[in-house]
Amino acid sequence: MRVSDLYRVLLCLYPGDFRDQFSEEIISVFEQRAAERTGTFNFFLMEFSGITKGACIMWLAKILTDKRIPSPSEAADTTGTPVTMAELNNQRETAIRKMVASIARHDFINARRYSDEEARLKHILHDLENGISAPGRRTA
Amino acid sequence: MQYVIMRHVVTDAKPLSEPVVLMLTSLASEPKHGYALLKDVEELSDGRVQLSTGTLYGAIRRLLEDRWIERFEQQDTSRDKQAYRLTARGRMQLNAEIARLRHLLQSATNRLGLKGA
């Protein structure tokens, strides 16, 4: 078994959505670094301890603060109703209107909340427009 | 009656960790993919900060979630070579952190009587 194969196996310790997003990039970066530091014990120690520590942190973060709102594909899976780009655009416009109304009322806490919501929807729309699959997307 | 709309700049008040500051600094000049980012962080810190690949991507994930950085689409972007760039929000956070560090440095300099040092 090659070192990168072992590294690939250890990547399975991470949550699925993280693996979907980053595993190929991580393997690619690891292989580039391994190629320039062949046989360096400290390097492999740092990488393997980093990956196990990182997996623990990711799982803890996921368990403690899993506030992620379902992606459109996940929403479609659970409700049976696909979320369209038009609906997302509508939601975004509503968030902007509510944010402006909150600012007018000097309610900056809610304004910030609607601003974050608008940014999140913008991000989802951007990903959809560029054909990037949402994290944790179920393909079955 | 004239209304003046002021834009309130809200930044997260907590000090940033050194690796995060270095990552944001590295991305401030131009978009980079993971390997280039790792190398630049090492160079910026004179080799003192060496991130493992897993740690780097954990940090990238958090920065993406906070929208301090974003994916940068290039013509030749393959799935294993994704570039990232700083967002306006990330730049604001970096500026706030630099201001905090500058203030800290000034205070320490004054206390030590090192004015002009």
Walk me through the structure.
The complex is a heterodimer of chains A (140) and B (117). With 140 residues, chain A is mostly helical. Chain A contains 6 helices and no strands. Residues 71-82 and 134-140 of chain A have low confidence and may be disordered. By secondary structure, chain B is mainly alpha-helical. Chain B has 4 helices and 3 strands; from the N terminus they run H-E-H-H-E-E-H. A 3-stranded antiparallel beta sheet of chain B has the order 1-3-2. The model of chain B is unreliable at 1-9 (pLDDT under 50). At the A-B interface, helix 2, helix 3 and helix 6 of A face helix 2 and helix 3 of B.
On the 0 to 100 scale, the average pLDDT of chain A is: 76
List how many beta strands of chain A DSSP finds: 0
**If you compute it from the alpha carbons, what radius of gyration of chain B comes out, rounded to the nearest whole angstrom?**
17 Å
Terminus-to-terminus distance of chain A: 31 Å
Shape of chain B: elongated
Write down the overall mean pLDDT of chain B. 85
Q: Could you give the order of strands across the largest sheet of chain B?
A: 1-3-2
Looking at the chains present, what oligomeric state does this protein adopt? heterodimer
